[in-house]
Amino acid sequence: MSTEINFDGLIGPSHNYGGLSHGNVASKNNALRISQPKKAALQGLQKMNYLRSLGLEQGVLLPQQRPHLPTLRALGFMGSDREIIEKASNQAPEVLAQCYSASSMWTANACTVSPSADSRDGRVHFTSANLSSMFHRSIEHGNTSALLRSIFSNDAHFVHHDALPAGNHFGDEGAANHNRFATEYDSAGVQLFVFGRYAFRENRHTTAKFPTRQTFEASQAIARLHQLNDDRVVYAQQNPKIVDAGAFHNDVVSVSNLNAFFMHEEAFVDSEALRHELSEKFEGELAFVVVPTEQVSLESAVKSYLFNSQLIKLPNEEGMALILPEESRENSQVYNYLQGLENQSSPIKQVKFVDVRQSMQNGGGPACLRLRVALTQDEVNAVNPRFLLDDALLDTLNVWVSKHYRDEIQPADLSDPSLAEENFAALDELTQIFDLGSFYEFQR
């Protein structure tokens, strides 16, 4: 017996609209607006519970310490916590904003996961993403690695790799640029690594507006670390046109599950060659659901986050369901396509909508909020159960959010040391809920 568990990021108390991600259209369009942290976190929890209500196992990943004072200290800001925040606010407010980002909520970027069925040593492999293309995200991987090691701590089943070397050449954005195809979650599969550019070779296909983030060399390194068989690995390059349209990660233009691949026709440099190679390497029949540009434009795909959805196999039901943001229902072009999708001869039999508007306004849809981990039953039994959502934990987290989170955060609030103190008090209580001890830097 096998399953795929979605581990969603619990949206942190510093959720704000900093507009820090160049190339992320939604993030930039909502920069410096008033955010609603409490509403955001409750929306995230509601989404997690909705997936549970459909019969899926659901996990939780914790927010990171924000503001990240160790980074501010490393950049020369000295004194007490309050003094550091005051100095950073006066001397480098843009740096303070970077260290306040709640971007770890988008756990699709947390790491890349390879199931035990694909790895030569028969264990599940995790590599935390270095996220080196954006400073506010590049400071996440140390905490990410520590958290994953706390959840998946059994060495007989799980292997953890540190993030790849920092820098431009091995930029790694995690599972947001990774897909896997298999007949069952515990069957040997084919892994697709999507990259934006080559770091050491000439790039024939380049972007004109926004930078690419994932390198081919980073994807290769992860495949080696995870002990994958070359004949079950495929590499494909993002279409630069897609990146310039605002699809900064591949999960903005494609999503897969088991033998199904839902994708925009312009997602890749050579989509036809990709489909051919995947079909050649996959033992079975792949179902490609390709959305034509004439039905859904790139602009509509990016604005609605049609593909930044969760494609899931519902227990005891035929076919799959697509979990979409409400914005996909509100976009007439996208919704017209979706109305016809269920009647097509494809594995996607249902479309369902969730409200994650606070996350969407900051540039992340349902797929951004979750990390997929395919596990056998023995591996599920080895997972730290405190991080698996049940009714009791859901109630506890709803109460915790309502107690600690602000209703609103304005840009000017980041300069107030009281916000940091509130955040640290919240995270201190959170570590007690999950029995993590002194997990965050401020607790040590």
Q: What's the gyration radius in Å?
A: 21 Å
Shape: globular
The protein's oligomeric status is single chain
Structural class: alpha/beta
Count of individual helical segments: 17
Care to count the β-strands?
15
Unreliable parts: none
| Sheet with the most strands, sense and barrel status | 3 strands, mixed
Percent of residues in beta strands? 15-25%
Helix content: 25-40%
How far is it from the N-terminal to the C-terminal residue, by CA? 41 Å
Spatial strand sequence of the major β-sheet? 2-1-15
Mean pLDDT: 94
Description:
The chain is α/β, with parallel strands linked by helices. The protein has 17 helices and 15 strands. It has helices at 25-29, 37-53, 69-74, 81-91, 93-100, 135-138, 141-151, 216-225, 240-244, 271-281, 298-304, 326-330, 332-341, 357-361, 377-382, 391-404, 417-433, and strands spanning 2-9, 58-61, 111-114, 124-128, 158-161, 178-181, 190-195, 233-237, 254-257, 260-264, 287-291, 310-313, 320-325, 348-354, 370-376. The strands form 5 sheets. A 3-stranded mixed beta sheet has the order 2-1-15. Helix 8 (216-225) links the parallel strand 7 and strand 8. Helix 16 (391-404) packs antiparallel against helix 17. The radius of gyration is 21 Å and the shape is globular. The two termini are 41 Å apart.
